[in-house]
From TrEMBL:
Domain Acyl-CoA oxidase/dehydrogenase middle: 137-230
A Pfam family: Acyl-CoA_dh_1
Protein's name according to its UniProt entry: Glutaryl-CoA dehydrogenase
Domain of life: Bacteria
Location of the Acyl-CoA dehydrogenase/oxidase N-terminal domain: 20-132
Domain Acyl-CoA dehydrogenase/oxidase C-terminal: 247-389
Similarity comment: Belongs to the acyl-CoA dehydrogenase family.
UniProt KW keywords: FAD, Flavoprotein, Oxidoreductase
UniProt entry tagged with the keyword Protein transport: no
Cofactor: FAD
Lineage, broadest ranks: Bacteria, Bacillati, Actinomycetota, Actinomycetes, Pseudonocardiales
């Protein structure tokens, strides 16, 4: 493929050139897969508020799973965080819901096992998950706890011989209605520390009910989970997770991934608005010739370019093993805020057509609100960065 012909119009500073030739082939393969196999499905299922289960089979042959987990995916070695981030951007550029389904499975669930499980546990669960023969979910957020879940987790785990008994509730858990493995986080009543448990599909006492009526991420099957005396063997407790500090290591990486998703939404909205402005005529000429339309497009491109640069450096810090909570928090807070601006400008350029699903931009406009909120609100991430730069905690 010719590089210039495949370059995104939103990649104004040519950030894709930072990838190696092999990495770029993977990215372009993902771009083709998402465009040809996934994009035709999304508006129909977004409108219905249903998950298209056939796309699991499509992903199964795409070779995109477990690229970051050496020894478990099809790739011979773990790829860079830069490629991982750009893949998240690329998937979201097609659809944020589908990207989230994949991110929950391939990121949150698999990474929890990869980073927090023993070698035996990794070998037991990850091969089937890498092949997408088994689907994962990640259950952290609770009905009465979001940003404060670290210190106020209400779901409990009590040891009983060689088993653990889980009780409590979780909310907004993506994939949970059909997942084979759900990583459930609970507070150990013995030492008051957070621990992780892999609850397998069909375990008695585990109930996942789909949340209806969402205006964003309508394809994602978010669930409210209740756990009533759910018995899990000690062999299913993630052996290297002993406190919330260990969990925070997982969340640090995934928070950066959400920022890449926000970039994908911006890229999609900008590309749609740019193409529309070139073809939509008013007063006898394309609206792309109007100064105020060009202003919105240029501001959007500026937001994209600045965000992309921040995320490139974040990926470099990750690859070097020196990135910290405040690095991913700043990226999440900044990029999602810029995303909100871009989707609003894009919808304005579409005028009334901007609220019609068939023009696509409405879907990105709505889905942006979910990305803005999860993995830590802007305010919470701001306080993390604020503490880092001032040395003073403003948390109440």
């Amino acid at each position: 493929m010719d590089r210039l012909e495949d370059q995104l119009t939103a990649d104004f500073y040519d950030y894709e050139a930072l990838l190696s030739d092999d990495e770029r082939k993977i990215l372009l393969g993902a771009r083709e897969f998402m465009t040809t196999e996934i994009k035709p499905l999304v508006n129909e299922y977004w409108a219905k508020g249903e998950f298209p289960h056939e796309l699991i089979g499509k992903f199964r042959g795409a070779g995109l799973t477990a690229l970051s987990y050496e020894g478990y995916g099809e790739h011979p070695a773990a790829v860079s965080n830069l490629l991982t981030g750009m893949l998240a951007m690329e998937m979201t550029r097609t659809d944020a819901s589908v990207a989230t389904f994949f991110g929950v499975h391939n990121g949150l669930a698999m990474y929890s096992i990869y980073a927090g499980g023993s070698q035996e546990q990794r070998d037991r669960w990850l091969p089937a998950m890498a092949a997408m023969d088994k689907i994962g979910a990640f259950a952290m957020t609770e009905p009465l706890g979001g940003s404060d879940v670290a210190g106020g987790m209400r779901t409990t785990a009590q040891r009983d011989g060689d088993t653990w008994v889980l009780n409590g509730a979780k909310k907004w858990i993506g994939n949970a209605t059909f997942a084979d493995y759900v990583v459930v986080w609970a507070r150990d009543l013995g030492d008051n520390q957070v621990k992780g448990f892999v609850v397998e599909k069909g375990t008695p006492g585990f109930v996942a009910e789909k949340i209806e009526g969402k205006i964003a991420f309508r394809i994602v099957e978010n669930a409210e989970i209740t756990l009533t005396d759910v018995r899990v063997p000690e062999a299913n407790r993630l052996q290297d997770i002993n406190s919330f500090r260990d969990v925070a290591e997982i969340l640090r990486a995934t928070r950066g991934g959400v920022a890449w998703q926000a970039l994908g939404v911006m890229v999609a909205a900008y590309e749609l608005a740019l193409a529309y402005a070139k073809e939509r005529e008013q007063f006898g000429r394309p609206i792309a010739r109007f100064q105020m339309v060009q202003d919105k497009l240029v501001q959007s491109l500026g937001n994209i370019t600045a965000s992309w640069g921040m995320l490139v450096q974040l990926a470099r810090l990750q690859d070097a093993g020196i990135f910290r909570d405040e690095h991913s928090s700043l990226a999440k807070a900044f990029v999602t805020s810029r995303m909100r601006e871009v989707v609003a400008w894009a919808r304005e350029i579409f005028g009334g057509n901007g609220i019609v699903l068939g023009y696509d931009v409405a879907r990105f406009f709505a889905d942006a609100e979910a990305i803005y909120s999860f993995e830590g609100t802007r305010e919470m991430n701001t306080l993390i960065v604020g503490k880092a730069i001032t040395g003073e905690s403003a948390f109440v």
